[in-house]
Each structure stands twice: as structure tokens, then as C-alpha cells.
Amino acid sequence: MRILRIGPLGISTHRRTFAVGLVLLAALAALLVFALMQGQSDISILDSIRAAVGISVGPPADFIVGQVRAPRALTAVLVGAMLGVSGAILQSLTRNPLASPDFIGISMGAGAGAVMTIWLIGATSLWVTAAGAIVGALATAALILALSWRRGIVPLRLILAGIGIGFVAQSLSQYALTRMDVHDAGNALGWLVGSVTGRTWTHVTVCAVILAALLPVVLWHARALRTMEMGDDAARALGVRVGLSRSILAVCSVLLAAGAVAVTGPIGFIALVAPAIALRLTRNAGVTLLPSALMGALLLLAADQVAQAMPATLQLPVGVFTAAVGAPYLMWLVWRASRGGPS
Amino acid sequence: MSKRAAIAGLCLLVLVGAIALSLAIGARSIDLETVWHALTAFDPSDKDQLIVRTTRVSRTVIGVLAGAALGVAGALMQSLTRNPFADPGLLGINAGASLAVVIALSTGLATGFAAQVPVAFVGAGLAAILVYAIGARGAAAGAPVRLALAGVALTALLTSITYAVLMVNESTLDQYRMWVAGSLTGRQAEDVLPLIPIVLVAILAALIASRQLEAVALGEDAARALGVNIAAIRTVIIVLVTLLAAAATAAAGPIVFVGLAVPHLARALIGASLPWLVVVSAFGGAALVLLCDVVGRVVAPPGEIGVGITTAFIGGIIFALMARRMKVVEL
């Protein structure tokens, strides 16, 4: 009886998921073009697209679009996608719609790496600081995975170990903040919030390589992920190697988050909110990886457009804006849940 | 009963030892005899005795106050949410206090530490009330989980506003980064005087209410059967946690982990009896904060490391190791 009902439901959600994916893709493309055109100096649609793909159209557009706007926008798109997928995996594995890589210490680790670098070496260049963030993110990721690894990874232990390591990383950031020059401290704060300002094609390449390496692995295990949502026993009965799949997916989720925060600093709430909205739009019963990726990309790119549209005295990192929108959304979810009884 | 009293007495002894260390150790080490003379037969001409009387007594008083308040707040919070990983910081208290201090600093309303105490207290309290209003509406089953989520969300929101203010205002950042490090230095005991009765009364009230909270912790049905008004006792506990944690943050800056770890360790020592847990958590919290402060004074000479930093660093490692050893049922 139940199996019969799953069949048609599966087909209908599939169609809807596909349609939602196409709409999201179209919206993302439109917003991307807008992001290339819009700014201090407006550049025509054709020129901006040409400049972005490397066709020379003359001095201002070549530099503004080709070297500033395009890498910044693409960094936002790729990092948003990484965060969206990372959050979707973690939420599915823990069967908790409120799990998020924001809370498991990697963000704090990347922030601590960047802040310590600024303190010890100085804010010499974006590259040196970013290298510090990468080291911080990978070190915390390795530490968290090592601490939570006992014959495979149990998601709850991963989150708890992450919270503990997050405390340590935060204390290191705060210590470094009290020791450095005030001007450097202001600069360092940017790495504790997350920003896509000044990102270059190299950042885009780094993100693209990480996504290209990990996304196929994740999609390969997507069926296992969906099956595990029905319970470990059901998944085992359907031939899923639960322990192995879970460990691989957890590692992928952590690495995607680590890559994202290493490039931009910790941008909050995208990983939490994007999978939730994707689920709602597709009306899927289980995890939706690609729509989550598209949603994350769309959200981060949109948030960065808002950040850029602010007046010159209020030029703040995009992380401030994602939190300003994401946090009230989460509070609204909680508020609604407490009105409707147990959820 | 007597075994528990013995354990509580032992914790008190540890606290007395921590107080002695806190008075004696620092940039200038002072022997315990001089410390004793400074307290009983004060000689203003002796430089060592003067240091004890002027700076060491103040920071010790503040440390005991903040540590005891956080320990008790954590014990109440964990019983209320039935979650051994609950922390009073979950109510958004640290973030609320931080934002209030930053706003006061950037508008020039509160420049000295004495003025920051009430500001931080009010900010912490307002954040907790907001979290409670969002998360515990209707007091339905599962409310504690929502409380924690509302706290996480509000913390993120307030922190991002705090950072936004700090990024456009460098001089505020300079003062704020010292406050947020949670240091006991440069603070006078007189500044926190109004907080002492608040903490004492709240701990006393916690002791009185703890029997009924214990009944709630047994499960809502059991509590109702015992004639406990669940909504009322929850509200009382939340008010007490807010008062205690806000007072601690106002006195010593944001200190994480003490409210989380101390009740956890206390439970391992003395069992689940809540009145005893409150007593042991008060002693243990005070001792932990003082010891962390002493460590922060000596590890990085000639400078000091704020107690908020040392507690988070040491505590985070213990927490992660605890999570590793924990027996987790596969989710």
C-alpha cells in the first residue's frame, strides 16, 4: 500500500523539482547579468556579458566587469552554492532542519585563522589573510572530523565536537583582536563576518575546483541520503551501506563549508536557509541537493547586491546582510512553530 | 545526605584555595602571609599589601560573583531544558550585552566601566526577554528547544549589528575589544556593588524553587500530578537565569562555557539533586573563573589574557573531548 503511494508521488515531485530548478537557474542568470551591469558606472548588457567572458570591449568595461564585478559575482554564486549543498547534507543527515555548518566551528576556525594571520604577519594582502583562513578552516575541519571519528561519523557527535572547537577558535580570535593595532582589528572584523569584496578570478577557480570535485561525490550518494531519511534500518534493507555513505557525506559537507568560508570568511545563514526554502519550493519530502545549491547561489548574490547598493558610509560585508535577513527568518520559523504547538 | 554535604564542603575548600591563589598570584607574586595581613591588619605603607587591597581584592570579588552566578544559571538552564549542553548564553545574553555596550560606547553614553555595568545588564536582560517571548510562546511541549533556537537566531542578528557598528566606528572597536575579552582587570568592586544583592537573592530563590523545578524535570505529566504550576515555575526559572547571567556578563564581560561545564561536572560529582547542584555549581563556578583568571595572569607575561578568553579556550577543548567520549545513540 505504502509502496504504491510512493511511486506516483515520486514522479510528481520529480517534475516539480525539475521545473523549480529551471526557474531558479533562470533567475540566477538574470541576477548575474544585473550584477555585472549595475554599479558605480553602468555598462550595457552586451558589453558586460562580453567583458565577463573575456572578450575585450574597451578600457572601462574590461577592467570593471572583467576584473572586479565578474569575479566578485561568480565568487558569490559558487560560495552560495557550496553553502547550500553543505547545509542540505547536514540537515538531511541529522534529520534536523535547523542544523547548519554555521554552528559547527568551521566558520570560527576560518575566522580565527584570518585574524591570527593579520595579528602575526600583518594585513599585508588579501592573499596572505585568505591563506590564513584556509589553514584555519582546514585545521578545524580536520580536528572536528578526527574528534568525531569513531568507526564512522555520527552527525550529533560531529556537531558537538564542532561547538567545542568553535569556542576554542573564537577565543583565539578574541585574543588576537585585543593584541593588534586598532586599524588592523577593524580589518580583521571583516573576516569574522564574511565578505566577497575584492575577490579575484583565482578565488573563483578555487571554488569551482572544490565544487567540481565534491558535487559529483555528493550527487552519487544522494539516493543513499534520501533513503537514510526513512531510517537506518529501511536504508540497510534497501542495500545502502549506511555507515560508509554517512561518513562520506559528512566529510563532503564539512569540506564544502570549509572551502566556502576559506574564500569569503564565515557568511552566516545561507547554509541554514537555502535548503529550507528549496524544500518548500519543490515540496519534496526529502533532501533536494541541486535546488539547494541554486537557492544558496541566488541568495548570496542577491544579498551582495543589497550590500553594494548601500551608501558609501555604510559599505558593510555581505555577511551582515545575510544575518540581518536570515536571523529574523529563523526567529519567524520558531515563532510560528510555537503558535502551532509541537512541530 | 552527609556524603553530599561532604562533597559540597570539599568544593567550598577548593573555592577558598582559588581565592587565596587569586589574591596571591599575578605580575607580582605575594606570599599568603602578606595577603592575610593585608586583609586583617592592613598596613598602607607596605606596597604588596596595597596591591592586594586595591586590585586583587576587586578582581577576586568580581570573579567570585560572575562565576557563582554563571554556575547557578547553567544548572537551572540545564534542568529547565533537560539538555546537559544548555548554556545561559543560549538566551542571547552575551550578544545583547555586547550590542548594548557598543551602542553606549559609540553614542558616548557610557565611557567608563562603572557606566557599562547597568548598560550591559539591561542589554542582556532585554535580549533574554525577547528570546523568551519568541521561543516559549504558548509553553507547549518542546518549548525549551525552541527557546534555544530563538536564542541562536537572536545572537546571530545582534552580533551582526554589533559588527556593523564596530566596522564604521574604530574608536568604539578599541574600547569594545577589551570589554568583550572578559577581563577582570581595571574593574573596581565598588562598580559591581549593586549586582551583589541581585546575585545573592537570585541564588537563594533558585534554592527555594529548585524542588519544584525538579518535579518539572521529571516530565510535565508527573509535575502536573504533583500539583506544580509548570508555566509559573518555568517563568520564575527563566527570570532567575536572566538575572544571574546578565549580572555575570555586566560584571566580567561575556564568559562562555562556565555555565555549561560547571553544572555538568557538578552533576557527575553530586548526582541530580537540584538544591545540591545549585550549591556545588555556585562554588565550582566561582572557583573555575578565579583559576582561569589566575592562569590568564601568568601564561603570557608581561601581559595578561582576559578570563573570557581563557575559559573559552580551556573549556572548548574539554567540551570537544566530552563530546567524543559521549555515548551517542546513532541518530
Concise overview:
With 343 residues, chain A is mostly helical. Chain A has helices spanning 2-37, 45-52, 59-94, 106-120, 126-148, 155-179, 182-193, 201-220, 222-228, 232-237, 242-264, 270-282, 289-309, 318-339.
What would your notes on this structure say?
- The complex is a heterodimer of chains A (343) and B (331).
- Chain A is an all-alpha fold and 343 residues long.
- Chain A has one domain (2-339): ABC transporter involved in vitamin B12 uptake, BtuC (Orthogonal Bundle).
- Chain A has helices at 2-37, 45-52, 59-94, 106-120, 126-148, 155-179, 182-193, 201-220, 222-228, 232-237, 242-264, 270-282, 289-309, 318-339.
- In chain A, helix 1 (2-37) crosses helix 2 (45-52) and helix 2 crosses helix 3.
- Chain A is globular, with a radius of gyration of 21 Å.
- Chain B has a single domain (2-325), classed as ABC transporter involved in vitamin B12 uptake, BtuC.
- Chain B contains 13 helices and no strands.
- The two termini of chain B are 38 Å apart.
- Chains A and B meet through helix 5, helix 6, helix 7 and helix 14 of A and helix 6, helix 7 and helix 13 of B.
Keywords:
heterodimer; A: 343 residues; ABC transporter involved in vitamin B12 uptake, BtuC; 14 helices; disordered N terminus; B: 331 residues; mainly alpha
Quaternary organisation of the protein chains: heterodimer
Overall shape of chain A: globular
The 3D shape of chain B can be described as globular
Can you give the mean pLDDT of chain B? 82
User: Given the structure, what is the number of helices of chain A?
Assistant: 14
> Which regions of chain A contain 5 or more consecutive residues with pLDDT less than 50?
1-12
Query: Biggest interface between protein chains, with counts per chain?
Result: A-B, 64 and 59 residues
- Domain count of chain B: 1
Order of helices and strands of chain A: HHHHHHHHHHHHHH
Task: Give the beta-strand count of chain B.
Answer: 0
* Rounded Rg of chain A: 21 Å
Q: What is the CA–CA distance across the termini of chain B? A: 38 Å
CATH class division of chain B: Mainly Alpha
Q: Specify the biggest β-sheet of chain A.
A: none
- Summarize the main sheet of chain B: none
Number of strands of chain A: 0
Helix percent band of chain B = over 70%
CATH topology descriptor of chain B: ABC transporter involved in vitamin B12 uptake, BtuC
> What do we call the CATH topology of chain A?
ABC transporter involved in vitamin B12 uptake, BtuC
